[in-house]
């Protein structure tokens, strides 16, 4: 019998993850157009404000656009093997429907990726992360319009071709399932009065699936050595009691997420979703050839975010709710919660890894995991974020157990290795980073960078390949 292996692979991709719209700033520089993130002043769950009269911290981010060399040097000091980021679609196609890309935007990412590679850090690039050109929303209705597939495919082919010698790891969309929970953020959807919102969201999801599959096909053609994956917001669900009705409610809740990885990994719509459509009077318009496109465009790996687990019940009326990433669930009395009410469940990560690997037998990549918290700068300038170290070390320990279970795990990118503008609340107060950025919720501060206690801790984790937590 072979010996059980609890070690991370030698080529394990340790790093951190960000999104362009949360860090770059410079929202009108370099020929960039307006994106949906630029008109979402209060986070992903809020309606957009095209007038932008409200303060929008995304506009300046943490000025990564001008400071990326300084920040990448800090990532290199921690020993990052990879850095997950995204390309701002509107830097490449400002309105979304142009025939020719913006060279100044393309050149920026050339310099950015070159800087990463000069430090031996592999770029892991999400093609679209919680943003799309505002022009595609105003002129076409966002992802509810099939025409947007054409614009996305053009954009994807441009960046896949441009950076084929620099980027080995791609993802098509960030947390693609968010279209059902924050439809403006996930799909640029603005509903008309009386519109069947569920039908619109699932139709938009279909267009996203086709666009993703076409990007996968393009990636395989342009650079067969590259890997391209999907990315889902994963939220494993437990039944609140052993009551079979609660167990089935948990299954149904999980399927709302798993349908997205099912379709992108297997290449077809699952039977349970077809039944859901019938029972909820949802009709998806498919073009001829769509089913073949889905079959041909299955992903190479599955990326996912994991912050918490959920609890489901068939009768939630009397039970206390818990906050969460994108949606709320029933509170789990066995778990602690973060300052923002997100329940902390390291064991749930091991469960999620096993469930996904059992289901697909494809490599997995934990591309978001972290703790949003209020950090205090002491008089001597230190930031003692032991709570973050505890959170991350407990989750990494469960990843190690999952590897021993036989899970094929490619890498781990902690969310927000440098403080950034929170996607869920559009504030700076909710910090994730190993690196502190001097900026507050009103946009005040020097933007200077400072190392937190967790900086050296994560450096040691990477140096020892996860042996020292």
Automatic annotation (TrEMBL):
Keywords: Glycosidase, Hydrolase
Presence of keyword Hydrolase: yes
Pfam families listed in its UniProt record: Glyco_hydro_1
Gene Ontology CC terms, in alphabetical order: cytosol
Keyword Hydrolase: yes
Record: active site: 368
Annotated GO biological process: carbohydrate catabolic process
PROSITE patterns xrefs: GLYCOSYL_HYDROL_F1_1 (PS00572), GLYCOSYL_HYDROL_F1_2 (PS00653)
Record GO terms (molecular function): beta-glucosidase activity
Gene3D superfamilies in UniProt: Glycosidases
Family of the protein in this entry: Belongs to the glycosyl hydrolase 1 family.
Protein name: 6-phospho-beta-glucosidase
Source organism (scientific name): Metabacillus litoralis
